[in-house]
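Task 17 of the worksheet. Students: predict the tertiary structure of the chain below and write it out as structure tokens. Keep your answer in the requested format; marks are given for formatting as well as content.
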Amino acid sequence: MDVRLTSEQRQLRDAAAKLADDLGPGSVSDLADEQRIARLEKTVASTGWRALRSDGASGVEVAIVAEEFGRGLVDVPFLGPLLADDLWSPPESVPHWTVAVDDRAIDARGARQALIVRGESMLASAVATATTGADQTRAEAALTGVPKLLGELSPAQVTQWRALALVSTCADLVGTARGAHALATDYAKVRAQYGKTIGSYQAVAHLLAESLALIEGSVSVLRHAAWAVDAIEPERAVQAAVIAKLYCARAALTVCETAVQVHGGIGNTWECLAHVYLRRALTSTELFPTSLEEIDRGLS
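Model answer:
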């Protein structure tokens, strides 16, 4: 595989990064700014990125946008509608759909319907009002009513969709780790102790360097898994995605906890964005969870 991004993919990455930087929350208080969220929602909707797969985008391009949105803590739906779009094109009269994981609609702000993949059956269920939980940037909702059968999927479709779901959440984890690391690095450049910025001390510099090494490793396994979604048979693509998800989840947790540590006492306060990154990393880890045993089964 060629890990280099094409010029079009670099342009997509730059556009997603600019959107996240311009309209993503820059502070914890921004999470409650409904005017900002409305502008962000309108802008994301106008990009058409929630329908990347039905527009012919590859797993790599999905990962590019998901990573930048994770880095910028973009707090309007993306992963849920994107994964629903990969399997189903709902009527235009229905507001954006999302997907259900473990009988909970994820990324459910503004959603009225959730797509459920149960075995090889594709079902739809209405959803209740969305609420935020541990993750302050994404909402969940309970399913309501009796699910309606939409159609049947082939085993290959189900397997490839799972690979895409793992890659999408994996990319969100990589972006979240990058955002937390940048937050900690910027803080270390300006916070002074004993007459010097804390970033000049080896104890802090080494923590940040180790986090950067974990991020670079995460980018490597993510790129391979994202490429595999469309380039190789679905079973092997899932195996690559499982490995990437396990590595990136553990790396993101370490990087986000390190960001809290670098901030010192202020890192444990509500006003510091570090905990928002940590919360997002924890919830992305639990979306489509994986285990080491799953890798062993795939290799046997």
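Marker's comment: The chain has one domain: 1-87+154-299. The domain at 1-87+154-299 is CATH 1.20.140.10 (Butyryl-CoA Dehydrogenase, subunit A; domain 3).
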